[in-house]
Amino acid sequence: MDKKALIKQFQQDPHKYWKVKLFDELGFKRRQCKKCGKFFWTLTEQEICNDSSCRPYEFIENPPTNKKYDYFKAWDAIKRFFVQNNHVLLDRYPVVCRWFPLYFTIAGIVDFYRMDNSKFVFEFPANPVVLLQPSLRFNDIPNVGTGRHWTCHSHVEQACINDGKNGYWKDRCIELDFELLTKVFGIKPELINFIEDAWLGPGAFGYSLEYHVKGLELGNAVFTEFSGTPDNFQKMAKPVIDMGAGLERFCWISQGSPTSYDAVLGPVIEKMKSKASIEYDKDFFLKYSKLSGLLNIDEVANIEIARAQVTKQLGVTKAELAQKIEPMQAIYAIVDHARALTFALTDGGIPSNLGGGYNLRVILRRALSFIDKYNFPFDLIWVTEKVAKYFKPLHPELIENIGKINEILNIEEKRYEQTRQRVGRLVESLVKTKTEFTEQKLIELYDSQGITPELIQETVKERDLTIEIPADFYAKVTERHMLEKPEKEKKIDIKGLPETKKLFHEKIYEFDAKVLKIIDNKFVILDKTAFYPRGGGQEPDFGLIESCKVFDAESYDGIIAHSVENPNFKQDQIVKCKIDLSRRKQITQHHSATHIINAASRQVLGAHIWQAGSKKDIDKAHLDVTHYQALTETQVEKIETKANQIINKNIKIKKEVIKRPEAEAKYGFRIYQGAAVPLKELRIVSIGDVDREACGGIHCDSTEEIGQIIIIKTEKPQDGIVRLVYVAGPAAEKYLQKRKELLNKSAQLLKVSEKKLPEAVKKLFENWKKKKKELEKLQEKTAKEKMEKLEFEEKNGLKFLIREVPKAGPGQLREISRKLSSDNTIIFLFGISDKIYIFASAGEKAVKGGIDVGKIVKEACAELSGRGGGLPNLAQGFGTNKNKLKNVIENIKKSLVK
Known about the structure:
alpha+beta, Elongation Factor Tu (Ef-tu), domain 3, 5 domains, 26 helices, 32 strands
């Protein structure tokens, strides 16, 4: 059931859900808007509601409040009001959400979202509460710059649990919110509409009342009364009040400025306007701003019709409107995106091409594209510094982290510039092949290569072409990156089985247990177990059940399934179990080493380091951390040195189980490394003051037990992530022994002493480079010889060459194709050596005729058990199944030479 259907369901009994005592006391009447059809409560005889989609912003130049409030004064007034009314004031939570499976904190109520195994729950540190929560949302990026929309907004969160003690319910909530509007901000009661709405959350839902004044929604009081989904729910024993209000909107309505950006960040915007020498027609912008609510892409059925209405009312053409407002809207968008990035990077977010980092890069590149488009004489770093300084009174952490923020932005700007240089070449190729820049193609180019549609638009303009950027482009590309991936699904039938009693933290290595079930003659469920199941990156214990080998163990909702080789025992039998102790000890050392490497990386690289994944196995371990560039050799050496210094201090490793709210209050959100923990009680592993994490893994009792840590290599498994691979304990000793043996063997092969080995290797390398150049010359000569034996077939004005080239590698195939290519050629070359190498090209005439060699090569490589692909005019790949080569070549010939 979607939101509209849910509202209709509640509307079957509107007085039960939306009517509150205040409405009766003051005489609010329920009406239906003749324009949008929504129901609302009002003191006046009005036919149209106060939503911005129905009426212009009537408060611009005419604020309804008792005085003007800037960002700091508005929050001070709201904070004092709720504290005086017995709400506990909380500090903000990070904007990067660590405690719940969301990438970002999208609203204040998310601070209190938690999981209890697979069940959604609320957890409050006090009751009732109020806080100012910076929140990141990427669903309405196209609207940012138009008036009221922000990717980073300050969410005033008034929340409580109606537990019958300290909490309250909807009558008191609306009474408080009405008093805030009328008594604190001085808004007249007859200007206020309460519009009926509903809210659908991740594991709960309810009905809500939005309060609107003069076309602006100021807040939304949600009455979360049901857990589950509208199709499968139950009434909550302790329902939750979630009132969220935008602080930016309180500032805006009190100042009556053209936009909320002016009201919140006016001093910063004035500096940007002055530096950019923008011609700002304030009178026109004020007229436009009053109508801008009609252009909200997420609320308007047809944005083009809405734009036509706005231009008609303003008496300008679409082009004139764009010329007058777009440079200023670009300023607003840049300052918003700078604010979002400043908070996100402070709290450990990293721009990348995956997950939440994807959305950060979207707004970063959008801001950079605006700076380029309008040739603004400032960069994004300059803007973020101004933003951080401005918010210092409330958020001093932003300016404290500005050095690291600037470092990340500087790297991202260089990457963006590299992308810009690539765009020209790519667009040239696409234009030549008459590729249509459809919405899907634009998304594909952004996803695969980080190329923004604005960059493409700028490039095609130079060729007297145009492309249409969909209004909701950025909303579509960011939507899929808001939620984290769901957990794995169950693959075995555990229905009706009790939770397994866990013994693996108790240093029990031999035990007796009862067999509860054997599934598929492989998966064994015991009533209790000391076998550690795969989880948190730690590989499982091996061992024996009776005489049968245990080669895996996994947990499914607290039930542990042991993978057993040919079990020779039966259900209900008491069996003897034994853990492979040497394996357990080595993996334990690697797991404890992982915590130390994480702490050492944070000390060396900075506070932005968070665990993004890990694996602890018997031969080696690795840790993935969030970082914006590859590590240098010096950085790796420092991390390894720091890690071993921690080990040598022989610090006690403490494990304690405490309630989740207590753990968060005591240790903060650093305890959530890698992922949120869906348990009401957390096992906290502390290595002195060096590192504290919520972790269910097996650990040593002191750092000394870990032995030496050696970082054997680093990798970049994906953008924004660095992987450190290391060994500890016996695995480190084996690694050193192998290195010593390799050193001895290398010295023997080169017939030198170990001392002279570096000099001998250098000489060998120089000789290899010389031989490589000779080989390249030989390959060119061979390619020329092979090329002379190749002949084209001609048909319909095109020349075809589809041939095997024995013992040819990718370099030779490329060289042959380059020398033989022309506007009317289609060339497919198959080099036969250790693999099948494929290189294909198509001239401009062939591509215009519909030839796409990229697609053909991709399909051919797949059939040859390999992979490849490319553009319509150029492609390459490889395969390994030589038995299918002749069939592949024949099929290509049939499809091309018709």
